[in-house]
Amino acid sequence: MEKTIIVTGGAGFIGSHVVRLFVTKYPNYKIVNVDKLTYAGNLENLTDIDKLPNYIFEKADITDAAAIKSVFDKHRPDGVIHLAAESHVDRSISNPMEFIMTNIVGTVTLLNAARTNWGNDLEGKRFYHVSTDEVYGSLGAEGFFTETTAYDPRSPYSASKASSDHLVRACHHTFGLPVTLSNCSNNYGPNHFPEKLIPLSINNIKNNKPIPIYGKGENVRDWLYVLDHARAIDTIFHNGKNGETYNIGGNNEWTNIDLIRLLCRIMDKKLHRESGTSEKLITFVKDRAGHDLRYAIDSTKLQHELGWKPSLQFEEGLDKTVDWYLSNEKWLDNVVNGEYQQYYQKQYGNN
Ligand code: NAD
Ligand code: TYD
């Protein structure tokens, strides 16, 4: 094998698309998926590629230093693409400690393992930390986040991700570890866990349940198709400059209410319902505490320096996403059984 790469969180939403892209595009790389399989980790996301000879799964918790050391000793990776995280803002509000452990302690545990395993032999090595635009805080009506925007995280989730970003940069500065970072906007697409806005709404529309919109639905997010994020990670992993950060975004801003109205129109067509049926399910509920108003990414650096650009228009991506959920009912049913029911009841009550 030409290279061995550890992908952490490869059983999750974005991680599974990154694993699939690397395993299929680079048959000469060994891809080691390291995942604890929390509620968000699902090996069903990878059944189409998990028999390929260059794919290996290792069940491990990134906060467990001994387990992570033994994975590094066993596989001796050339690269790490670190996606494992607690990723849902609402859960970070009700239980911040999980986020501190996985996102901060877990990241430092991986950095230590990479430093120990690589020692001074840093030729061809790379630690790639995948982060979020939420570290930059919240925008008003104008402006965009660039790589030099000051950090201003405002939820326990974004504060824990900001902290991990700082620790990765500190490790580069202090110990010379070869790193790259990227901060991406909201992703959507197949395999997205239905606690997040788009898949939760698809599931509820399908089941004729209320669609909970926080506050007035005026908050703005910049949506990117998950495969475009995976392609950006591939580009940055191979061509990004050591020590650099790249912002990734779709240049595709939507208020939550406009997005959900578009989704309702698509779902009415796909489900052969009379136009306007799904919109009646929209229900305004209590706002999220500390709800960031607007995120918007300027990805000029990545586009100009490394030649990446998003490939899909939002309407087309959303259409494809709905098709995926409607033709993967078993995946959805398996995911929404069990822990999800308790989470949903606690978060939304009888809405
Ligand atoms: P996800 O919640 O779908 O998946 C997270 C994965 O990490 C799961 O497979 C889970 O089992 C695993 N994991 C969690 N804790 C772990 C631990 N202690 N040890 C090992 N594995 C563990 O998350 P996602 O949406 O795919 O996000 C992946 C990464 O991308 C995260 O770092 C997130 O901050 C970042 N990100 C996400 C988005 C987005 O819109 N979803 C946008 C920008 C950046
Ligand atoms: P989410 O998918 O949780 O992503 P993030 O908080 O990381 O941006 O939420 C996207 C937007 O949708 C955000 O403004 C919160 C809002 N939202 C709702 O209005 N209702 C919901 O049930 C959820 C989960 C989110």
Can you describe this structure?
With 351 residues, the protein is of the alpha/beta class. It has a domain at 3-187 and 224-251 and 294-312 and 338-348: 3-Layer(aba) Sandwich (Rossmann fold). The chain is built from 12 helices and 12 strands. The chain is globular, with a radius of gyration of 20 Å. The N and C termini lie far apart (52 Å). 45% of the residues are buried. Thymidine-5'-diphosphate binds next to helix 6 and strand 8.
Task: Describe the strand arrangement of the main beta sheet, using strand numbers.
Answer: 3-2-1-4-5-6-10
Bound molecules: nicotinamide-adenine-dinucleotide, thymidine-5'-diphosphate
What is the CATH-assigned architecture of the domain at 3-187 and 224-251 and 294-312 and 338-348?
3-Layer(aba) Sandwich
Average per-residue pLDDT, rounded, comes to 97
Report the CATH superfamily of the domain at 3-187 and 224-251 and 294-312 and 338-348.
Answer: NAD(P)-binding Rossmann-like Domain
> Main beta sheet, described?
7 strands, parallel
Number of strands: 12
Q: How much of the residues is beta strand, in percent? A: 15-25%
Roughly how much helix do the residues carry, as a percent range? 40-55%
Radius of gyration: 20 Å
Structural classification: alpha/beta
Q: Any low-confidence stretches, pLDDT <50, length ≥5?
A: none
